[in-house]
Design brief:
This protein has 15 helices and no strands. The radius of gyration is 18 Å and the shape is globular. It is an all-alpha fold. The N and C termini lie close together (11 Å). It holds the Pfam family MPAB_Lcp_cat. This is ER-bound oxygenase mpaB/mpaB'/Rubber oxygenase catalytic domain-containing protein.
Length: 254
């Protein structure tokens, strides 16, 4: 049985830890609020009404693909494209190809940035491996103009950040929904987390400074994680109704 991502892959290590996945969400939640195509998720109503629920459904989908055999992973990717196709049909318009690429690019960037924040610097070969996994996801979805290597992707990513991000009414409404769903304290943790992983362009548009209080907390958290206190701290920071989903993120199938 051939796996979509080999068992010793750094991608499995990244997506097998809820700590890393939560930072992937934190960064993506900020950047996506700036995306020019964010109105598509407002069309369905799912994102603004339940941003955390949307997070976990997206994360679980991505994680399932990472830990599945090739056939099952491809079937999931095909279903994902089918779901988006239905939304396009209902709206009578087509989601721009660059918007699909933007989401894919976010998964690549935040997978690398989050792991390096919480664990260690990745080698060039490991970054290439991360890129290759999501490149295969994008190719299966039928996306075009995807760079073939991580090195070729870097300038394209920068170009997307410049061309496809802007502040809009959706940006401010989404952050309002984040705060409503998370509560003041957890919302502040989200914003402080974003400061540590988002690109400079995103920081500028969201008016985020370079200093994050979590830069002080993370070394302590790493120590506490080694002392088996990580679960306690994680539960403290997350709404109780999502603790089951968070626990599942630590499970590494296969």
């Amino acid at each position: 049985m051939k796996l979509f991502v080999k068992k010793d892959s750094i991608v499995r290590e990244i997506w097998g830890k809820s700590d890393t996945v939560l930072f992937i969400f934190a960064g993506a939640s900020g950047e996506f609020a700036l995306n020019k195509a964010v109105d598509w998720l407002y069309f369905t109503g799912k994102l603004p009404s339940d941003p955390l629920g949307r997070l976990f459904s997206t994360v679980e989908y991505a994680k399932y693909i990472v830990f599945s055999p090739v056939e099952e992973a491809n079937a999931s990717i095909d279903m994902l494209r089918k779901i988006h196709g239905a939304v396009e049909q209902n709206r009578g318009a087509v989601i721009p190809d660059w918007a699909y690429r933007d989401v894919l690019f976010m998964l690549i960037h935040y997978s690398i940035a989050s792991y390096e924040l919480l664990e260690r610097k990745l080698t060039y070969e490991e970054k290439e491996e991360v890129y290759n996994v999501f490149y295969r996801v994008g190719t299966r979805m039928g996306l075009v103009e995807l760079p073939s290597t991580y090195t070729e992707w870097l300038p394209v990513r920068e170009s997307h950040l410049k061309e496809n991000l802007k502040q809009s009414k959706y940006t401010f409404d989404l952050f309002k929904q984040y705060k409503k769903n998370l509560g003041w304290f957890r919302y502040e943790v989200l914003v402080e987390s974003q400061k540590l992983v988002v690109p400079k362009r995103v920081k500028k548009l969201l008016y985020l400074n370079d200093f994050s209080l979590l830069a002080i907390v993370i070394p302590i958290y790493k120590f506490s994680r080694n002392m088996k206190m990580g679960k306690f701290l994680k539960n403290l920071l997350l709404p109780s109704e999502y603790k089951t989903q968070i626990k599942k993120l630590d499970i590494q199938p296969g």
